[in-house]
Amino acid sequence: MTRTTETITPELQAYIVDHTDPVDPVLAELAEETARLYPDHKGMQIGAEQGAFTTLLTRIQGARDVVEIGTFTGYSSICFARGLPSDGRLLALDISEEWTSVARRYWERAGVADRIDLRIGPALESLQGLPEQEQFDIAFLDADKTGYIDYWEELVPRMRAGGLLLADNTLSHGRVVDPDNTEPHVQGIRDFNDRLVADDRVTQVLLPLGDGLTLARKN
Ligand SMILES: C[S@@+](CC[C@H](N)C(=O)[O-])C[C@H]1O[C@@H](n2cnc3c(N)ncnc32)[C@H](O)[C@@H]1O
Predict the structure, then answer these.
(1) Pocket lining: 148 vs ligand 1, CB cutoff 6 Å
(2) Entry's SUPFAM superfamilies (predicted)?
């Protein structure tokens, strides 16, 4: 057996955050306001180290066109948009006017509003309604987990060669390996993970970052 991933204790988690690019005041305030307004939903935001990773990845990729499925109050969209060049574009898809109205305020504050095009509605319909020629360098899946496979099938053909697809929550808080858990969103993630590992259109790795972040590159 090759080396395994370390078990992340709370102390190691704090150490990881302390040794990753710090969260700037705009994102810190967004996280605070989200926790205050929506205490039951604050866990939906990606984590600080995932945010730093996505900004870095967007820059490494030289991405110009990014699509995000699941925007919520805007944390991950700001991280992607910050990695884009000034003429780059993030297409942000969500069903909630309320949650994304918070995102809009923070996009202005982060100075990235001009790079973000928000579409409200079921994300699958928004994707299916895009012009045929529209292509992406990065796609990020972070909405309803039972929809991941449909998003994936819609997105893979729209990725440029070498494009990156990222999917959050692919460990489902460890529940993917609990056979007694048959909740639809957990089973949705299991089905998604099984589908990906058999998909020879991509090369992929399931990273134990946050709640599991799958990174796949279109071959
Ligand atoms: C986990 S949150 C996204 C968190 C966000 N990426 C962040 O880091 O702050 C999931 C989002 O998906 C949205 N959502 C759920 N079902 C959807 C659907 N069918 N179409 C579009 N958006 C959907 C929800 O409104 C919610 O804002």
Answers:
(1) no
(2) S-adenosyl-L-methionine-dependent methyltransferases
105-144 pLDDT, tens per residue? Answer: 999 999 999 999 999 999 999 999 999 999 999 999 999 9
Q: How far apart are CA 17 and CA 164, in angstroms?
A: 24
Residues in Cβ contact with 129 at an 8 Å cutoff, skipping those fewer than 6 apart: none
Per-domain boundaries in the chain: 10-218
What's the pLDDT tens digit per position in 19-39? 999 999 999 999 999 999 999
From first CA to last CA, the distance across the chain in angstroms is 28
Report in angstroms the alpha-carbon separations of 115 from 6, 66, 165, 179, 198: 37, 10, 20, 43, 35
Ligand 1 pocket test: pick from 30, 32, 44, 128 the residue with the most ligand atoms within 8 Å of its Cβ.
44
Residue 90: how many CB atoms within 10 A of its CB? 28
Nearest CA to ligand 1 atom 6: 71
Q: Which superfamily does CATH assign the domain made up of 10-218 to?
A: Vaccinia Virus protein VP39 (3.40.50.150)
Q: What is the CA radius of gyration of the chain?
A: 17
Q: Which residue carries 């048959």 as its tokens?
A: 182
DSSP string covering 87-131: T-EEEEEES-HHHHHHHHHHHHHHT-GGGEEEEES-HHHHHHTS-
| Six-digit token string for 80 | 């992607």
149 by Cβ neighbours in 10 Å (0-12 / 13-18 / 19+) ranks as middle
Ligand 1 within 6 A of CB of 75 = yes
